[in-house]
Amino acid sequence: MNNSNLRPRLRLLATGGTIAGAQTSGDGRGYTAGAFSIADLVAAVPQIAALAELTVEQVARIGSQDMNEGVWRQLAGRAQAALDDPGIAGVVITHGTDTMEETGYFLNLVLKTAKPVVLVGAMRPATAISADGPMNLYNAVAVAAAPESAGRGVLVVANDEIHFAREVAKTNTTQVGTFKSPNRGLAGLIHSGRLHYFGPTVRRHTAASEFAPLAAGGLPRVDIVYAHAGMGRELIDAAVSAGARGVVIAGVGDGNMPAAALAACTAAARAGVAVVRSSRTGGGLVERNIEVDDDAAGFVSAEELNPQKARVLLMLGLGRTREAGALQELFRVY
Ligand code: SIN
What we know:
Layout: H1 3-6, E1 9-16, E2 22-23, E3 31-32, H2 38-43, E4 53-62, H3 69-84, E5 90-94, H4 100-110, E6 117-120, H5 133-145, E7 154-158, E8 161-164, E9 169-170, E10 179-180, E11 188-191, E12 194-197, E13 222-226, H6 234-241, E14 246-251, H7 259-270, E15 274-279, H8 294-297, E16 300-301, H9 307-318, H10 324-333
Parallel strand pairs: 1-4, 1-5, 5-6, 6-7, 13-14, 14-15, 15-16
Antiparallel strand pairs: 2-3, 7-8, 8-11, 9-10, 11-12
The chain binds succinic acid.
Residues 17-18, 33, 63-64, 96-98, 121, 123 line the site of succinic acid (SIN).
């Protein structure tokens, strides 16, 4: 058997982002996301060939600010097809960092697999001084190629860290250490391709999840409304008028909001719109019935999920139930 037969076969799905970005100005600040193809990115890191045999596919070529349900469906479909192939050991997805946590959590809920699935991006474009993409890509391939990565749900690799997609959040606009997992911490560390896992994820995911990748019909509209001092009810009413089936409140503190907004949410819940209270703080969890009477109002608390992840779970959850108690149970399980 020659060496290439010993390497795991991985599928690399590319969607664009800064990892594939090219600078457009001499000062190094301006750049276009997704300018390089996945073949260019892999060619820039020849050391990857020692880790795995890659087959690559360009699914999209966008900045992740333009990530949407259509691309999610396409990506989930291509990832699932690769994962169902007995010859493929795992999947790596290149993705912009801006919405990586949402795509990662979506895939964590819908892919049916125990094989490793790893999202990777970069904060500096491929042409920048000290670009972080090449090492991030190398590490992501090492994580996806490692048998000990199996069964951990979807992972995010950046800056020598391994995060669970459920836990990770982008916390800084430009720095390479932007990803943090504020509540439960890291899945592990990776240094030049050597992995160190700290523990398993505790919430249900992938093969054990009840959500299907390509459920019939589109996902329902769910809007996020950001709370602030002096907030009125107008944006909540506007979301309902625009057809939202669910509203996630990025609440102040423990998922709170001013009285006018609370009245609008209560009216929305009575009208059959799912209302989920999350927090704009970036850490901690929103519990039920602390300052807000969730039982009386028919609200759901997001527990540990930040607003953008609560939106993902609510969109999927509304495909199964519209009942507040059953939705709350989903937030306990996932
Ligand atoms: C994006 O999310 O596509 C742009 C930012 C990045 O990838 O870091």
